[in-house]
Amino acid sequence: MGILDVLDLPDDLTTELDGKPDRHLAVVACMDARMDVYRILDLEVGEANVIRNAGGVITDDVIRSLTVSQWELETSIIVLVHHTKCGMLRFPEAEFRERLAEHAGARPEWSADGFDDVERDVRESIRRIELNPFLKHKHCVLGYVYDVDTGERRFVARSKVLEAA
Ligand SMILES: [Zn+2]
């Protein structure tokens, strides 16, 4: 069963691909090569904005994309997909920064944003979205962990924000 069956949304698919996600859905997922986000969420091309980075972390740039997605492309649902055996799990941030500093002569201004617990990071990601003032739809933020060994998708948490009138 797909995410959208769980949500019981109306099946209002249009055949016209106008660039606005037909399912009003934005996905934030890790860039991990083992994850086929469309297959994991039972999505077709045209149904979602898919934003990916190392860890599926809610960075400033992910907020930028989500804000454009909600304000310009009419999405209102956010689905987060983290996964087991993620490279950002227990990421050696200090050592990584040292290596970059040796190479470039300076440390990066950004953090690699690793985490110690994948489920806790899903909850932290939901919290970052809930606290962001620019996003206007926060009532339906759903967090999942994908198991790269079994191919199972496990629900972790959803936002606790009620939709504004
Ligand atoms: Zn990952």
Shape estimate: globular
The radius of gyration over CA amounts to 17 Å
What number is the mean pLDDT? 91
Percent strand equals: 15-25%
Strand order, sheet with most strands: 2-1-3-4-5
CATH topology value: Beta-carbonic Anhydrase, Chain A
Oligomer: single chain
Total number of helical segments? Answer: 5
Enzyme class: lyase
Family: Belongs to the beta-class carbonic anhydrase family.
Function: Catalyzes the reversible hydration of carbon dioxide to form bicarbonate.
Cofactor: Zn(2+)
Describe the protein's topology:
Elements: H1 3-7, E1 25-30, H2 37-40, E2 48-53, H3 60-72, E3 77-83, H4 93-104, H5 118-131, E4 141-146, E5 153-158
Parallel strand pairs: 1-2, 1-3, 3-4
Antiparallel strand pairs: 4-5
Bound molecules: zinc ion.
Zinc ion binds next to loops.
How would you characterize this protein structure?
- The protein is α/β, with parallel strands linked by helices.
- It has one domain: 3-Layer(aba) Sandwich (Beta-carbonic Anhydrase, Chain A).
- It has helices at residues 3-7, 37-40, 60-72, 93-104, 118-131, and strands at residues 25-30, 48-53, 77-83, 141-146, 153-158.
- A 5-stranded mixed beta sheet has the order 2-1-3-4-5, covered by helices on one side.
- The structure holds zinc ion.
- Zinc ion binds at residues 30, 32, 55, 83, 86-88.
- Pfam families: Pro_CA.
